[in-house]
Amino acid sequence: MDWLTTVDHKKIGILYLIAGGFFFLVGGLEAILIRIQLMFPQKEVVTAQFYNELITMHGTTMIFLAAMPIIFALMNAIIPLQLGARDVAFPFLNALGFWTFFFGGLLLNVSFIAGSVPDAGWTMYAPLSGTQFTQHHGTDYYVIGLQIAGIGTLIGGINFLATIINMRAPGMTFMRMPMFTWASFITSALILFAFPALTVGLAALMFDRLFSGNFFNPQTGGNVVLWEHIFWIFGHPEVYILILPAFGIISEVISTFSRKRLFGYSSMVFATILIGFLGFMVWAHHMFTTGLGPVANALFSVATMLIAVPTGIKIFNWLFTMWGGSIRFTVANLYAIGFVPTFVMGGVTGVMLSAAPADYQYHDSYFVVAHFHYVIVGGLIMGIFAGLHYWWPKMFGRMLSEKLGKVTFWIFYIGFHLTFFVQHFLGLLGMQRRVWQYLDGMGFNNMNFISTIGALMMGVGTILFLINIVITLRKPKDCSNDPWEDGRTLEWTIASPAPEYNFAQTPLVRGYDAWWHEKMEGNTAMTPVEPIGPIHMPNASILPFVMGIGLFITGFGFMYSGEWGTLGFITVGHAVGIVGLLITFGCMGLRSLIDDHGFHIEEDEILKDQGVKS
Amino acid sequence: MKRWQFVKRLAPLMALLVLVLSACGREDMSALNPQGPVAQEQLNLMKISITMMSLVVIVVFAICIFVLIKFRRRKGDNTIPKQVEGSHKLEVIWTVIPIIILVILAVPTLKSVFNLSKDYSKDPEALQVIVTAHQYWWEFEYPELGITTAQELVVPTDRVISIQAATADVLHSFWIPSLAGKIDTNPSGNVNKMYFSAPKAGVYLGKCAELCGTSHGLMDFKVKAVEPSSFERWGVAMTGAVELPTDPDVASAFESKCLTCHAIGQDGSESIYPNLTGIGSRESVGGILINVEEGEKEYKHEDTLYNNLYNWIKDPEAYKPGNKMTNAYTLTDEEAKGIAEYLSNLTLDFE
């Protein structure tokens, strides 16, 4: 019950981690099924219809329900700690963001039980996703589920923006902010601009489907290329929304385990901002074959190539952070080091893809599949694993097993390269993506077989990671404040896991890598800027959870309004939908009418905590 | 010093790799093994980018490996490394070098973008072909010849082929890897143009590259490049009259069950489903059931022309799930056999 009502950012982070981890497993299972179907030519392990459902749900789940929430988990758990803040700016909204994401994701996956699963690809290109060519409710689950989940993401983004701008500890100027926080800041800004585009697109597609709108229906004057633009104006920044926090994590981990300051901090910040900006400018490179004409293709080609420059700056800065350092090979650092060459390989294929005429060959082939898995799995997932191993003690007070972690890393890493490296060649040899079967004798057999073996290894790696978690959960919570001993930022100055109020006294930041700065001066704690006193905390609330349920019911009602018939003069579905909306709006009413001043944690309680720890 | 030796050894290896890659895969299907000038131009661009990018990868890997070996923490070492802020010189270097590399790549890219977007649709020298994509088959119309055919694009080896592509239903993408890149087919009057030429006679595999439904992966077609004289004979043969089956039972079944959707002979241009004229001369049935001689069957999707036709007519769903032919008719086994027999003899003599 405590978990349903919590507004504590650390607990919400853990909730995000559990939910995101669960969806990661679902998406992974879908991936394994896809690879098993493609293990041999012309197999029918799954039907063509189910195969299309699998690819659609795998993409959608991994991007929206696994990768983003796990990033949000780390952002929630760590950013306030790195800032020296006691909470995020809007704790209630934070909880609401989680619950809308959760119920949106749930709605999307209920489609498997309901028997009409989205099957038009995660890009949902019209008119295939329209009512004429998808007569079942698959697309409805997609548009409504993602709209509800999208609310959560947008709320989260705004919350982090406000937190980072307003709640930095005294002395922490923007140019003293840890790199992970910087990256999350830019990510949140991208969310702020990209997600409304998705929301508009989804709403338009929903209007097409539920109320016979004409946005994307070519037979009534709609334009399908419009959907492609809207989707990618969101979709391209989305990949940077995913990868920038991973960049941040890698910066923290590499610098900590090299026992060295991040090389070229200011150029790192500049590169992050530039990547964020360019990320918005290049969406049409997903549409080189759509027929936009040579001028557009030329412009977007060059703009896309430019992204390689700030990314290159980052890569070399990481390498030179390690240069002259004292590198320790912890599991977290293994993932971070493994990230660098892998991401470079994904990056250079990105530059290759940006050459439009060559892209006429690569586009929608397995080359593209290989490329984006290299950046998303080899970049983002490696980053997430690095971050989880690195901050696990701070989140749970226990260390993940290093021994098992190393085995996991190697199995996952080798499996990953086995899976995706050969796919570059599959694409160039003529295998298009999203194919249910390939014919025998095309020269695809061996590489597909290797790829499937690799995918199974990644599956084993993931299971080992889960085992690691289970083993760790049974250990005592006995981590020190700074378990890696080389911690550089503020989160390592407080207990692991952090107490409810994070910082008993707000710390004074006197330089970049504040905690390292103090350690080098021989201090054992941060200088506080205030005496110990009662700390104001927000009250827990069940309202966000109920609001999520309300939207969940609404989605169902409107989706099935055509089937559930009428009761008198009102359709049952619409009635259900309206009830759901009333629940949500009712909660909003309650929230604004009832004064909730929160509570205080008193001085003696804080002192007691301090006594126990010291 | 050692590092440079490492790079020196790797550079020829990478060059070799590029060479090996360029002769990779089936001649009729691989983008790495181009059979026409358009695909060749695309491969050249790929080679430039692969070479550049391999260099980048090698440099990064070399630095990475060097750093990891040289600066790993030894047991008992507890010294604090110097906390370096950064280096303006270095940072400028690795900003400028990528820019130079990108400029080198951008110039041929831009040239190629405009070169490959040339419009041949008004050129009387070029062969005009209107491509219409359907779930899950391809329609090819030759407006100058008054021919509409399906699944097999017959082209002469001496002319540029100008393609105008659109779709009759959902988005598809027209792709012949060994001859040219792909272009999407859009609905509602949005016609996309591309061109290619196939100077070497032969059969090339084409595919649909945009997810278009259950049988997206099975929406294959063939491009058959033939000598100019053969092409002329093909044009004439395609417009000739076609006789109906001699057996009256088969003929009536064919007329009432098949010709309601399909067309045959001259009137073919109007039908909304594949024109069957000359189907006996095609390489495959339905794009994926490859016709081979008796006893040469090697793979699951290969069989004799007759068997392929018969199997397809009996149960198209088993070969292309979700196609529009399934359940559109009922045929007795006798009728199916008769029709398959008739269609397998429906050949064109032009090569």
Provide a descriptive summary of the structure in words:
The complex is a heterodimer of chains A (614) and B (351). With 614 residues, chain A is mainly alpha-helical. Chain A contains 19 helices and 4 strands. Chain A has helices at 2-5, 9-37, 48-83, 91-114, 138-166, 179-211, 224-257, 265-281, 294-306, 308-322, 331-354, 356-362, 366-396, 402-428, 445-473, 514-520, 543-559, 572-593, 603-613; strands at residues 535-537, 566-567, 570-571, 599-601. In chain A, the strands form 2 sheets. Chain A has a two-stranded antiparallel sheet. In chain A, strands 2-3 form a two-stranded antiparallel ribbon. In chain A, strand 2 (566-567) and strand 3 (570-571) form a beta hairpin. In chain A, 62% of the residues are buried. Helix content of chain B is 38%, strand content 19%. Chain B contains 8 helices and 13 strands. In chain B, the strands form 3 sheets. Chain B has a 5-stranded mixed β-sheet. In chain B, strands 4-10-9-6-7 form a 5-stranded mixed β-sheet. A 3-stranded mixed β-sheet of chain B has the order 11-12-13. The longest helix of chain B has 34 residues, at 37-70. The model of chain B has no long low-confidence stretch (mean pLDDT 89). Chains A and B meet through helix 3, helix 8, helix 9, helix 10 and helix 11 of A and helix 2, helix 3, strand 7 and strand 9 of B.
